[in-house]
Q: What sequence folds into this?
């Protein structure tokens, strides 16, 4: 099943690399280590400009730890993001691909904003999962880390399907015990895109958000007044809310959900 699901932020490598070139980003912070995926790409981009990559992940794979030890311009912070963002300095670009829920992403953006203001840096944040299924629905790897007043009712067993706000019991795209979904899609304080929009509405300055509607959605959030903002905007415009990409993504998801349905049916027949 895993081989059928294209899910990595690394699929956006040409867009990410181009955007980092346009903005001349050297010092990069990654929230959610993806060893073998995005992390080596970001490390290479940082090294090219004489910068550093800081990867924040409380529980990465052992292979990642070994890889970091062999790359002196990369450092690893083994802590939840909200505990260590404030300690990062002079960051040119941030990547958020950790816990995909409103509380975490909203507060990550608030913390990043404070660091950027403190250091006199324009804000540039790349966010994964701004489209379906996490755009308007929280997921939780560790629900107990989310304060109860910000945590949606959740379920480990139900799965998401297109055009359905409620989870499908025992079916659909589900975490199989690895993570939980909010039981309902939409509404206040629910989902990654909702967190981004809420942050933008409170930022106190004009922010731009480009959205690439493929592979669960890439968001590029940046200060409208940044010296490179116009160039970055021109660069990402061909992908922003591109209707062809959106159509292809929906078709991909429909096919993937159909495969899950067929596998579930086959499993039931075997069990019977």
A:
């Amino acid at each position: 099943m895993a081989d059928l699901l294209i899910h990595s932020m690394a699929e956006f490598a040409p867009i990410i690399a181009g955007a980092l070139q346009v903005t001349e980003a050297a010092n990069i912070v990654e929230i959610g280590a993806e060893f073998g995926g995005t992390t080596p790409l970001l490390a290479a981009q940082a090294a090219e400009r004489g910068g550093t990559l800081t990867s924040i992940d409380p529980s990465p794979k052992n292979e990642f730890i070994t890889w970091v030890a062999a790359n002196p311009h990369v450092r690893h912070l083994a802590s939840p993001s909200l505990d260590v963002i404030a300690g990062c300095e002079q960051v040119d670009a941030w990547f958020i691909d950790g816990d995909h829920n409103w509380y975490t992403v909203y507060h990550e953006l608030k913390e990043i904003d404070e660091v950027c203001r403190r250091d006199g840096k324009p804000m540039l944040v790349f966010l994964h999962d701004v489209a379906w299924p996490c755009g308007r629905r929280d997921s939780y790897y560790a629900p107990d880390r989310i304060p109860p007043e910000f945590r949606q009712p959740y379920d480990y067993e139900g799965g998401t399907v297109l055009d359905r706000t409620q989870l499908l019991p025992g079916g659909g795209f589900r975490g199989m015990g690895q993570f939980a979904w909010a039981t309902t899609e939409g509404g206040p304080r629910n989902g990654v895109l909702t967190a981004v929009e809420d942050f933008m509405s409170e930022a106190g300055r004009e922010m731009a958000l480009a959205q690439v509607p493929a592979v669960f959605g890439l968001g590029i959030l940046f200060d409208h007044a940044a010296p490179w903002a116009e160039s970055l905007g021109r660069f990402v415009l061909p992908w922003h809310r591109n209707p062809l990409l959106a159509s292809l993504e929906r078709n991909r998801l429909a096919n993937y959900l159909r495969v899950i349905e067929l596998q579930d049916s086959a499993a039931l027949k075997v069990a019977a």
User: Anything to note?
Assistant: The chain has a mean pLDDT of 95. The helical segments are 13-23, 38-48, 62-69, 81-84, 102-119, 192-202, 229-236, 243-271. The chain is about 35% helix and 15% strand.
